[in-house]
Amino acid sequence: MSFTPNFSPSTSLAGKTAIVTGGANGIGLEVIRKYHASGANVVIADLPSAQPAAERAIRSLGDDDAPPRAMFVPVNITDWDAVNAMFASAIDKFGRVDIVVANAGIMESREFFNFQTDEAGRLIEDESSSRVIDVNLKGTMNSNYVFHEPFSLKHAVFYMKQNPPDEDGWRGSVVLVSSTSGYFGGTEVVSYVSSKHGVIGLLRSSHGPAQRLGIRVNGVAPFITPTFITQGYSELWKEEGLPTNTPADVATGIVHMSLDKEMLGKCCLVAGGRYRELERPLVDASSAWIGEEMFSAFLKAGAFFRNLGGYPLPGQRALTIENNVINSVQ
C-alpha cells in the first residue's frame, strides 16, 4: 500500500529524545535534522572516529537552546557495555529516551566466496564478511561466544518501558533500518543481504512482544540511496534513469514510521521518493504464495502458540568450549 508520509516540520516533538545510530553522516544525519527541527532532543551515536563529523553536524543544527538539545555519544554498537553507556548518557542529559533509530550499517569489501588459506591450506575466516553481520545484524544483536541477544532493540525496549505512557498508551518507538536487500537477494552481496534479511526477521519476531510493553517497532527498507556504500556505481545508476533516493527521502520515511501510531510491525519501502508499506501486502498474498491449505495450517499454528501464551522455549543446553570447539553437555 503506497502512502504519503504525514510528518511535517510543524510536528512538535518538544520534550522527546531520539537516539540515531550512525547519526553523524548521510541518512542518519538527515534523521537527526528532522527530529531536531521539530523540537526533539537528539543523540548522535556513532564511532569515535566520527566525532569531527558529529560536531560539525551539531553546529549545523544551530542549536542555541540552553541547555543544548543535541549531543554526540561515541559508541561501538557491537559492544554491549558501550551501548549501555550510550543510553545512560542520553538519559542523564535528557531524562528519557522516546525514539531509537537503528541505522548503522556497512557492506563487505570482498566477495563472499573469496577463498584465502593459511600455510596448511585451511580456509581463513573473512573478517570483512563477519564484520558486516556484527554491525548490521548484531548492530541490533550482541554476541558473547555463541550466545546472541537483541541489541539496540533490547536496550531501547528496556529503557523505554520505564517511560510513563502517552495518551494512547505508548512508551516509545523503535525503527530498524533494513534495505530492499532485506526482501530480495538479487545483488548477490552475500553478507549484506543476509544481515538485512535478518533485520526483517527481527522486526517480525519482536514487534508483538514489544507492543505488549508499550513500544512500537517498525522498519524501513530503502532502495538505492547515495552513500559511501553506493559510491562505486551511483553515477552509472543515475545515467540508466533508475529510481534513486536522497538521504532526506529515507529520513522522511524513518521519521514517519517512528511517529505514526498506526504503524505496528510494518516496514516502509522507500524508492525514488515513493513510499510503500511492505508487510501487510505480504500477509495478504500468503495464501496465493503457499496455498490455501498451508496458509490455513499456519494460521492455526499461530493461534496454537498464542493460546499457549507464546512459544515454549527449551531449557538451555549446557555448552563447553575447548580449543575453539563448542560441545554440548548431555
Number of discrete helical segments = 11
Task: Bin the strand percentage.
Answer: 15-25%
How many independent structural domains?
1
CATH superfamily: NAD(P)-binding Rossmann-like Domain
- Going across the major beta sheet, what is the strand order? 3-2-1-4-7-8-9-10
Unreliable residue stretches: 140-150
CATH architecture: 3-Layer(aba) Sandwich
Q: Give the N-terminus to C-terminus distance in angstroms.
A: 50 Å
Helix content: 25-40%
What is the CATH class? Alpha Beta
Q: Write down the overall mean pLDDT.
A: 84
Q: Give the SSE string.
A: EHEHEHEHEEHEHEHHEEHHHEE
Shape: globular
InterPro entries: NAD(P)-bd_dom_sf, SDR_fam
Keywords: Oxidoreductase
GO molecular function: oxidoreductase activity
Pfam family, one: adh_short
Describe this structure as you would to a colleague.
The chain is α/β, with parallel strands linked by helices. It contains 11 helices and 12 strands. The protein has a single domain, classed as NAD(P)-binding Rossmann-like Domain (Rossmann fold), CATH 3.40.50.720. The strands form 3 sheets. The protein has an 8-stranded mixed sheet, with helices on both faces. A two-stranded antiparallel sheet has the order 5-6. A hairpin with a 2-residue loop joins strand 9 (267-271) and strand 10 (274-277).
